Structures are given as C-alpha cells and as structure tokens.
Amino acid sequence: MENAIIELEGLTKFYGSLKAVDNLHLRINAGEVFGLLGPNGAGKTTTILMMLGLTEPSGGMARVCGFNATKDPISVKRKVGYMPDSVGFYDNMTAFENLSYIARLNGIPAHDVYHRVQEMMELVGLGAAMHKKTSAYSRGMKQRLGLADVLIRQPEVIILDEPTLGIDPTGVKEFLHLIRQLSRQQGITVLLSSHHLHQVQQVCDRVGIFVGGKLLAEGDIHQLSQHLFSEEAYLVTITVKDALSDTTAWESMLLQMEAVKKVTASGNTIEVSCTGNITPKLVRFLVEKGFDIMGVHQKEYGLEEIYQRYFDNNLTENVSHGKSSGLFQRSFFRKTAQ
Amino acid sequence: MESPVVYFKDLFSGRLHSKKAGSRGVSDAVSRQQPFVVMVRKEVADHIRSWRFIVLLILIVLTFAGAMYVSLSNLKAAVSNENDPDRLFLYLKLLTATDGSLPPFHIFMSFLGALLGISLGFDAINAERNNGTLIRLLAQPVYRDNLLLAKFVSALVVVAVLFLSLSLLMIGGGLIITGVRIEGAEFCRILSFVVLTVLYVGFWLSLAILLSVKFRQATTSALTAIGIWLFFTVFYRIVVNMIVKSFFPDPNFMAQEDILFYNNVILDLLRLAPSQLYTDATTTLLMPSVRSLGPLTMEQMAGAIPSPLSVRESILIVWPQVSGLLAATAVCFALAYFWFMRAEIRT
C-alpha cells in the first residue's frame, strides 16, 4: 500500500499466559481515519500503548511515522498525539496552566505558549472556562481539553482511545465532526478506538474489528459486509396473503435464479438470501406465480450486524479472559477466529 | 466549534512550520526550554503551593526556633565552660548547646528530615498514575527517567533552599545578638551540616519515591515508608540490643581487645540505620573536638591534646558515613529507576 504511516507487524503481547494481542498485522495510511472497533478487553488499548512505546511488545514490531515505537519512542511521541480513555489533569492547576505545561514540555517557545494555548482552548470550545481549575470541569469538558492537549503540539497522527466516552450526543457529533474535518483539511491521520459502532461508522474511512487480541477483519463498511455476508449480503422477506402450501416446486425454481442462495418458507412469509439486490426480480417472479404480495422487506447489513455477527460467532466458546469486569466475565470470544 | 479549520491554517502543515523554524531558529533555541527544566519548575511550584509542605515548613521552623531559643539562653554557660575545647565555636554552640529540656536541632532533624523526605516523595508517581496524568505526561516526547529525576531534584531543591535559608538566618541572628564575628571554619562546618542534612532528606526521599513506584496506592506507600522509618528509629536499636545480649559473650570475662572488637561490631550494626549515620556525621561536624566515632584505646589516646580538629579532618572522619548515605540513596533511586523504566503505564 502507498504511504503507510502506522505499520504493525506481527505485534504480540502476553500478560502472563494471557495473549492480549495476537500476531497483529495492520497498516494505516497517511491521512486516513481508521476505527479500531472491539468490545472491552479486546486488546485495543494494549495495541495503542505498544504503538507509543508505553508497553513493550512480547513479539513483533510497531512502526509509526517510520520510527520503531519500542526502540525510539521519543521520535514517535514527537509526531503522535495520544488521548487516553480516561484523561486526567492536575486538579490543582487551571486548564490553561495544564495546557501550557504540556506546550512547554513539547518545546513550544515561551513567547508562543500563551497564544497557542488560547487558540486551542477556543477551538475546542472552552475559551470561557480557560482559567477555571480542572477539578471543576465536567467529564465532557475534560474530554475536550484532552483533545486540545493532543492538538497543541501539531501532531501528524492522532490516536484517540474511546474519545467519545462520557460526552452527550450533540457533543459527540461535534467532536467527531471536528476530528473528521481536521483529518480532511490538514491530512492528519486519525486512529480511533471505540465500541460505539455508529460513531465509528460516521467518521471512519476504514474499520478494523478487533476481538480477543485478533484483527478479525478490516476494510471499509462495504468491504466488511461483503467479506462477512458473502453468502447472504441481502435478505428479502416477502409476506403473502395466503398460507403457503406446496412449496417445493417454486422453491427449486427460485434457487435456479442466479444470486439466490437460500430460500426458507414458513407460514405466509418467504425469506430469500441472495448475494445481489434482486428484489424486483423476485417480486415479479412471485406475482407471475399468482401470489398476492402483502409486503416486501429488504434487509441490508450495517455495522451493527457485522459486529453482532462476529460476536455471535465467538459466543460459542467461553474462554474467560480479557478485562474481567463482572459484566464481561463470561467472555464472548475465543482466541482463534473461526 | 464552528469552522475550526480556520485556526489551523498553517499550524498543521509540517513543511510550513519547519520553514518558519529555520528562519527564527536562533531565538527559538533561546526561549525553548528542556523538558526536564520545565518539569522541575512545575514540581517545585507544586511543592511550594501544597498544604503538606506548608505544614512541614511550619513544623521545622518552630523546631528551629525552639532549639535556637534554648541554645541562646544556654549560650553563656556553654561558651564559658573551661573544660570544653569547643567553647570558642560560638555558632556551632548555637546549633548544639542545650540544657536538656529540648534536644538540639541536629537531633531533631534526624526525625524531621526523614518525615520531610517521606512526605515530599510518597505519592510522587502513584498519585499521577491514579489521576491519569502519568500516561498523558509520558505520551509527551519526554524521557521516562526525566520524570523520576525531576521529582527527586525538585523536592531536593526545595529542601536545600529551606535549610540553607534557615542556617543563614541563624548565622545572621547570631551576628546581631552576640556581635561575634563568624570564623571561616565554622561557616564551612555549618555549610557541610546543611549539605549533609539535604543528603539525609534525599535518602528518605528516594526511598519514598521507590515506594511510590512500587505501590499503586499513595496511602500504602506512605504507611510503608513510615513503617521503615519507625523501624529504624525505634525498633532497630532494640533488636540489635537483643541480638547482642543473646549471642555475644559476657563482657566481664573478656579481654580488653575483645571488648573493643565487639563494641565495634555493635556500632557497625547500628550504623546500618540511616538515622545513626546522620547523627554520627552531624555530631562530628558540629563538635570539632570529636575525634572518633568508635571507642578508642588508651594507646591511641596517649599524647593527644584535647583540642578541636580542623574542618578537613572532621570531614575525613565522617566520610564513611557520607558515602554510606550516598550509597543508600543511590540504591533506592536505581531500584525505582529500574522498576519505572520498564513498567507498563496504564490507568
């Protein structure tokens, strides 16, 4: 691929016997918005930490902006802005002081610090609360301050770990819009981890689905649904007036039509799975056969289904690993993908 | 958050930025600070503003004032004591003279110095970790050891300034009250006392930082540090005494050399405690007539005139103590460094 800015080659991380990240290969191109999608405990944060050299990988290599993240983390950190999932600030300092501390740490000249910080605070909509102590900030405000904190050093890559956690829906929309805009206009690469499908769907160019330390699939939404539902990308449900009797005759005729993969009939509904969008053809066929059609419903697969599908596939085997918070103790995922 | 891109006109394009940096490179280099300096500045500011430090400051200043008051009221008696070879060192007497109602300042410091070091360092790393600021800080282009070093240096700077100003105040006050000129040797001794005190606080500080790297909870690390401190100040002496009583032979049946040998062993055991090292060293520095920290035989004492030693000789006597303290500090710091450098940082 052209111009990969983040390259992960066989990245692996063990915590004791637990494999948190399993032989991960991933390339992210410059200027793209990539969504890392997965449930809690899938190894998203661990992967991100390894990209920043904050954790040593057990095997493999992470290369960011051309630098090896494990051996040369400082060069990587000069180019990458990282916002952790729970951003913390020094509570005894004001937001302005917090931000100017970071600005100075990044070597921004003293005479520029004031303007730069002010600019950033206004950009994320905190201009009015600039001189308040961060202990008085709400969760959403802290999240915005976190973004300002990431942007102040003019990074080439932004890594956001669960950035929309704890912001209200309007805030999320603005936030994602801002990220998207930055990426488009300034060519910043954005890596975004989340378990909120819809948000990821809104902004990301490409998505990687990450479960149990493995990248199960990557690509844009369209590619993903094709890859996953190659057999039945479309599901057409047709409701007819009278209960169906003798089905075998026309079922075999339906199956002979190209693109049709599966036909199930029960009561007065017929479900047809097919690889292409052939709804009109199906309707015409059934009308010709003399059926009274009451309703036609065509189902397309969104990210939700994709996500669900992966998790359902993995539900079969209960291996308890991952962050063992009570809710997820019955872990959904087995280590090896199907 | 409307049309934010306007603000970023050329902020994000690396090429433009580097071009600009090229033209103003010289002025930038002057006003741009090293991350380490920035961190130390911030940490020092944090210490000075914290209530914890203010409380300790008040405690130490009060102790100092109390010790000074007692020594000033006993100064006349101490200076006119003909049997004391140190009687002419007025300013050293100010630091050490006492009538028994209050221990002298340097004995106080062996307790308070430890407390000061512990309280400045016990939450150095784990508080940042728990607040979620550690990961944000380490995602900046700074070396990890810079953070550890900044924590250590900033606390040490604060402590050094505190003790230096206290002793200068004492010297100034002494000058005004007594009108006696200070000798160069006295000044050197007081200065080395300050350095030694800072070093002693530095040991407890590095121990506290070590514990703050090791333990996730600030309270755990504080309690552990205080536990170690209590062990060395209270229980260690008792434990050594117990060992001596049960394992060593009865001194009534021993020859002179054996008694000397065992005494030295006991002293060496006691000197494993940092507070003992500190007390030994300060006593020697502040009392110029102290010739040895162990027992001396009659042959060694024969022909010696009970006169004060020179500064250089006093320092030579305490050199083992100083290096012991330095080594202990270095070990704690190195261990903290070892644990911290490869630790995974996550909230």
UniProtKB/TrEMBL annotation, chain A:
Signal peptide (from-to): none
GO MF annotation: an example: ATP hydrolysis activity
Domain STAS, chain residue ranges per copy: 167-247
All copies of domain ABC transporter, residue ranges: 6-237
Pfam annotation, one family: ABC_tran
InterPro entries: AAA+_ATPase, ABC_transporter-like_ATP-bd, P-loop_NTPase, STAS_dom
SMART domains from the UniProt entry: AAA (SM00382)
Keywords assigned: ATP-binding, Nucleotide-binding, Transport
Family: Belongs to the ABC transporter superfamily.
Name this protein carries in UniProt: ABC-2 type transport system ATP-binding protein
Organism: Chitinophaga filiformis
TrEMBL record, chain B:
PANTHER family, A to Z: ABC TRANSPORTER PERMEASE, ABC-2 TYPE TRANSPORT SYSTEM PERMEASE PROTEIN
Residues spanning the membrane: 51-72, 105-127, 148-178, 190-211, 223-244, 317-340
Gene Ontology CC: one annotated term: plasma membrane
Top-level taxon of the source organism: Bacteria
Any GO MF annotation of the entry: ABC-type transporter activity
UniProt name for this protein: ABC-2 type transport system permease protein
Keywords: Membrane, Transmembrane, Transmembrane helix
